[in-house]
Amino acid sequence: MSISQLAFLPLLDSEPSSLATETLPALARIAPLLVPSSLAASALTQLPPTADHYILDDTDLSLDEAIRYLDKGARRIASRNKTFLASVPAERFILRCSRDDLSLLSNAQVVSSISGVLYEVSEPNADELAQVRTALKAVSGRPRDLFLIPDSLDAALRLPVSLKSLGKSAVSSIAVVPTSYMSTEMPSDFASPSLLPDKLPIASLFTSCLRSDRTDGLFVTIPVSLSSVTTPLGLVYSSAESIAHSILSGNAVYYSRSRNGLWRKGETSGAMQRVERIRFDCDADALEFGVVECGPQGEKEGFCHVPEQTSCFGGVGGLAELEATLKKRMAEAPAGSYTKRLFDEPLLLRAKIMEEAGEVCDATTAEELASEVADLLYFTMTRAVANGVSLKDVQAVLDKRSLKVTRRKGDAKPEWVEKLGLGVDQAKGVDGAK
């Protein structure tokens, strides 16, 4: 569940241990962290488990070093190294440049090889920003980000406010803000990232980028469960203040229109939600809260007033429902039931998984294949649940693998080469090239 639209980009400019305890968890809920390669060795292990990160090349990384960072989970890398243009996937590369490099952006091949620009500024200039944006838009494809990185402490503190004052002239410009200049205090002004007193409040750096056309100033919010397969739970509303509380506390806080005030989820019922991710849509007027139910009943807390209904939109279905059913059966199924036997007899379960895997390979029609895949998923999920592995765990592995630039070789194992009589070329995957 990565973040596409960014209110700002936090730059980790010191060791995580030097920051207030709440700083990195709050930031991880709303933005990826830009980690300098000079700090990466020690800093990456200290980031919150849910944090996304980019790498800022400040040590003249080699191509192999850059690829290793991407393979290990960095979503993007920002560098001045122009040799990366042809070797790092465009969607993973941000070109760092200054006013002296503007001519580079007139080259369509360069722009097509990047996902954004990290542009060095002391004070943002509307005409200069327009020139950079025009160059980035000249090449078709996904919109490319324009990150503005300050060249001094004073510039860092002024930049978010300066961009706000430029209004439409600064649209799509994303301020890079050093984490040591941020505060986890509750701001008094949610519409502007004003200093408090000599630091920038994390909460208002985010809320000041939102806009509402509603007379009450609220934002439509979709809480999404991350406990299993991503599932929408319902529709609620948030105010700028409730969003700030959610960012800083990590507990879901919404706005109750009936009570005309903050709704701290679970305050009376105990059915709390831990906020892992807050995203806003492409118009910055609606929000998605990625949450994990963490009340007394955990995943069974749900969200809806209707008993036994997890989502206000009805049953979840599919793999999420299968996982929930298997967890319930493991705890409650009577002795002698088939699913209970599968949990209690691992050799029987192993035999069924191997049997169904073979039938998936042998299926000849679409209907047969769908049926056999469903059977294989059932038995595989039974083994996963029996061993405490969730769909969320599996999804995390898939997400991590999707970030790899270096391909897996994927050679067939010798036992299957022999069983199927594969030739040398048939058994070979890929060379593991970049």
Automatic annotation (TrEMBL):
Listed Gene3D superfamilies: MazG-like (1.10.287.1080), Phosphoribosyl-AMP cyclohydrolase (3.10.20.810)
Reactions the enzyme catalyzes: 1-(5-phospho-beta-D-ribosyl)-5'-AMP + H2O = 1-(5-phospho-beta-D-ribosyl)-5-[(5-phospho-beta-D-ribosylamino)methylideneamino]imidazole-4-carboxamide; 1-(5-phospho-beta-D-ribosyl)-ATP + H2O = 1-(5-phospho-beta-D-ribosyl)-5'-AMP + diphosphate + H(+)
Record key words, sorted: Amino-acid biosynthesis, ATP-binding, Histidine biosynthesis, Hydrolase, Multifunctional enzyme, Nucleotide-binding, Oxidoreductase
Keyword Lyase: no
Pathway the protein takes part in: Amino-acid biosynthesis; L-histidine biosynthesis; L-histidine from 5-phospho-alpha-D-ribose 1-diphosphate: step 3/9; Amino-acid biosynthesis; L-histidine biosynthesis; L-histidine from 5-phospho-alpha-D-ribose 1-diphosphate: step 2/9
Gene Ontology biological process terms from the UniProt entry: L-histidine biosynthetic process
Endpoints of the signal sequence: none
EC number of this enzyme: 1.1.1.23
SUPFAM superfamilies: all-alpha NTP pyrophosphatases, HisI-like
Gene Ontology terms, MF aspect: ATP binding; histidinol dehydrogenase activity; phosphoribosyl-AMP cyclohydrolase activity; phosphoribosyl-ATP diphosphatase activity
Span of domain Phosphoribosyl-AMP cyclohydrolase: 235-313
InterPro entries linked: HisE, PRib-ATP_PPHydrolase-like, PRib_AMP_CycHydrolase_dom, PRib_AMP_CycHydrolase_sf
NCBIfam families: histidine_hisI (TIGR03188)
Matches recorded under PANTHER family: HISTIDINE BIOSYNTHESIS BIFUNCTIONAL PROTEIN (PTHR42945), HISTIDINE BIOSYNTHESIS BIFUNCTIONAL PROTEIN HIS7 (PTHR42945:SF1)
Protein name, per record: Putative Histidinol dehydrogenase
Gene source species: Rhodotorula taiwanensis
